[in-house]
Amino acid sequence: MAIIHGDNHVFLLTTRSCSYSFSVDQEGLLRHLYWGARIDSVDDFKNEPYVWEQGFHPIQDVKREECSSFGTMRFKETSFKVAFADGVRDFRYRYAGHTIDKNELTVVLEDLVYPLQMCLHYKVYEDVDIIEKRRTVKNIGSEMVTMERLHSGECSLPGAGWTLKNFNGMWNADFDAYEQTIAGGKTVLESLRGATGHVANPSFVLYQNAGETYGEVYYGALAWSGNFKIVLEQTPYEYLNILAGMSDTDFEWRLAGGEALETPALYLGYSPDGLDRMSNAMGEFSRQYVMPKPLADQPLSVLYNSWEATYFDVNEQAQLELIDKAAQIGVELFVMDDGWFGERSDDHAGLGDWQVNAVKFPNGLAPLTRKLKSYGMRFGLWIEPEMVNRDSALYRAHPDWVYHYPNRPVMEGRYQYMLDLTRQDVRDYIIGEIDRLLAEHEIAYIKWDMNRGISEVASANLDPSEFKTIWYQHTKGFYHIIQSLRTLHPEVEWEACASGGGRVDYGAMHYFDEFWPSDNTDPLDRLSIQEGYSYLYPIKYMRAWVTDSGNNGKRTMPLLFRLHSSMCGALGIGMNLNECTVEDMELLATYVKIYKDIRPIIQFGRLHRLASLPVDGLQAVQYENGEESVLFAFLDHPSRWRTTFSIRPRGLNPKTIYQVDREGQQQQHYSGAFLMNHGLDLSLNHDYASCMVRLLPERSRGEGNK
Ligand code: DGJ
Description:
Elements: E1 3-5, E2 10-14, E3 18-24, E4 30-37, H1 59-62, E5 80-84, E6 93-101, E7 104-111, E8 116-125, E9 130-139, E10 145-158, E11 163-170, E12 173-181, E13 185-191, E14 203-207, E15 217-222, E16 228-234, E17 239-246, E18 253-255, E19 260-262, E20 266-271, H2 274-290, E21 303-305, H3 307-310, H4 316-328, E22 333-336, H5 366-374, E23 378-383, E24 387-389, H6 393-397, E25 416-418, H7 424-440, E26 445-448, H8 470-488, E27 493-496, E28 514-515, H9 523-534, E29 543-546, H10 559-567, E30 570-573, H11 582-604, E31 606-611, H12 613-616, E32 619-624, E33 629-635, E34 644-647, E35 656-662, E36 668-671, H13 672-677, E37 680-683, E38 689-700, H14 701-705
Parallel strand pairs: 21-22, 21-30, 22-23, 23-26, 26-27, 27-28, 29-30
Antiparallel strand pairs: 1-2, 2-3, 3-4, 5-10, 6-7, 7-8, 8-9, 9-19, 9-20, 10-17, 10-18, 11-12, 11-14, 13-16, 14-15, 15-20, 16-17, 24-25, 31-32, 32-33, 33-38, 34-37, 35-36, 35-38
(2R,3S,4R,5S)-2-(hydroxymethyl)piperidine-3,4,5-triol binds next to loops.
């Protein structure tokens, strides 16, 4: 049973390896009791009455709570803040009932005096050790209620000295994983851009003594693509309080009688065996419960993307030539990036005008789609539908369709403005235009970009008292548009991009089939970006292009290193193939073919981070499906003549004999036990050296001895 409500008024939620427990105390308040390794007996949790002796330590701060609300004797950060019409500003709730339906629990809380109800929703994903939390607040009276903070959930961990792992970044430097010990006070991860952003990810990973393969790890991820806030408060009372949800920095939501607001989901996970298990549990959870079907179960195509090859300079002839070349190397999906629409010759003009540029494409897109069809390839296009340039027909016709204050200039970001998605006419325009585009052309794939945050948070459509709702409404509007387009065109595949990895989150994952994790395509930088990404996000969603080297300010690196680095995700090619040598084209074709062969293991297998450059002097990752493995290893440059390395693969059968295939070397054979314990020796002896190794089960030791 995933959810138990004991006679002691204790709730116990249990997954394969984890339990989560809270109680209803003698006053009807929810007390958090436990989150950690599995405990099956609900009776073990004692629900003893709490006594506050009115000393210096307020009981609500001393005790761990399941739903803390601003006001009363609470001085810690709380997960809910509300104001009633008469000025009373605390939610003095009591437990009012609950329902259990298979793996879902709803606990109902009601204020003692005011007609306000909060439902705490829990959903247990037993097989992947995830517990989902959400909240709904409902005004069950008639007078207006104003909410100033509503987190998706809170939880806590006992003790102090927790290590937090999150991802710091900025454009071109996404997913820089860092660790910090939370010593005291509040640590805040937040976005105020109206989107996820690169600076912090809406997720957290916490542990006290853990590594890749050992130690307890507690983690969480928000399913939200807008402003978010995660507060980790080390209280003086020997626990870490964790609150996560929409940011309250500029939030206000009024509920009239009968109205309700539901939060985004917060997914909480627990791994008893380190970070490796956490990543693979999140991969499995994503595939089974979050990613849109049917693509969740299908491998992603090898794509070509024109961006770094041609930038805005796209035209029929050059794209046709690229298509021929892409077909030669085995590309399956050809994506034309920015520059194909409106008056777009650079980033100053055209956004919002989603008609094919007739000068660049005098015959429309048909010559491209015809040619692609003849090769059996699919066609994709880049769009940035939430945006408009000042220099565009759309802005000239509707200057009031952007977020703006009437008496102040709107700040430009990348020479563009953000469309006001709180307006139904704007949402309808975007849906209508993209629907028309998809209906008029044979488009199988859309890369949806988003290259600036929201400023001047005001709408011509709303009363000024509603401006603080815009952040929430924009994200909901974005979800509405993508969902409407998916419904109208269920066959289309969608990629989420926001100047690279600015929209990698579990909210977007519900609507998109893949992520573009970074604009930085330097293959060495990518190794650390991909590593940071891989902690909580699935490899299948991680697009990775092989791009040109030695130009556009990039350092020169061997094509093989670039290929290996991109083969660690969903492979794409972004080189200017028209300028490739014959040898490079041959190498690309060879490796695209190899990738197609190993892609089920890469995209659907388990991932093991075996070595990390800054710590181990080389980068090594393994993908494994219980049978076969593929390993990649990378060296930036030999340091102090160190050119030999040993890596220890995981997840092999100790008794099986594996055929070890290294590129260009003689096959060798080792037992799984030898490989996992002694290790696999590798020689990487020059700058930007890399290698791919495949492990194929040959026979089990038992069979060999027969
Ligand atoms: C930013 C994206 O991240 C790039 O991949 C590319 O699509 C450009 N925008 C196009 O303007």
